[in-house]
Specification:
Elements lengths: L2 H17 L6 E7 L12 E6 L2 E2 L3 E2 L12 E6 L7 E7 L6 E10 L5 E5 L5 E2 L6 E5 L2 E2 L1
The chain binds calcium ion (CA) (2 copies).
Length: 140
């Protein structure tokens, strides 16, 4: 192994350590709509659709009051492989509805960003619309 490759590997490892992230996590950004009832304080979970298979559910939880009106929130969840994301499904098992404007998912291993924009109604709440599937809008 050359010294350059070794140093690069060390730098990558240290940057991962300094962010406290596992390798190949997904970083998720969500934007809540601006309407009156768009915010929620309910637990929300997400799963990923990747080349025809689906991941387990992952809780979207942070240490702030997240999912407030017109706010971006940021989460980290384990990576589900490096296949292309074709969609995400969002779940809300309680009655305080959440209206989504957009979700971005960045694969920290590949640096690809997948964008999921809501068109039309984009509410998740129980029991009317416990889950909402968002197909991929774009890939950066
Ligand atoms: Ca909230
Ligand atoms: Ca609400």
């Amino acid at each position: 192994m050359s010294i350059v490759v070794f140093l690069f590997g060390c730098a990558l490892f240290m940057s991962t350590l300094s962010e406290g992230l596992p390798f190949c996590a997904y970083r998720i950004y969500t934007l809540t709509e601006r309407g009156k009832n768009s915010k929620t304080d309910n637990p929300i979970s997400i799963k990923f659709h990747i080349d025809g298979s689906t991941s387990p559910w992952h809780n979207l939880d942070s240490d702030v009051n997240d999912r407030e009106r017109q706010h971006w929130d940021r989460y980290i969840v384990p990576n589900s492989g490096n296949g292309h994301l074709t969609g995400v499904t969002v779940r809300n098992l309680k009655t305080d509805g959440w209206e989504i404007e957009a979700i971005y998912v960045k694969n920290l291993c590949t640096n690809r960003v997948y964008e999921f924009y809501c068109t039309g109604s984009c509410w998740v709440d129980s029991p009317a619309a416990t889950t909402k599937f968002l197909p991929r809008s774009n890939t950066i």
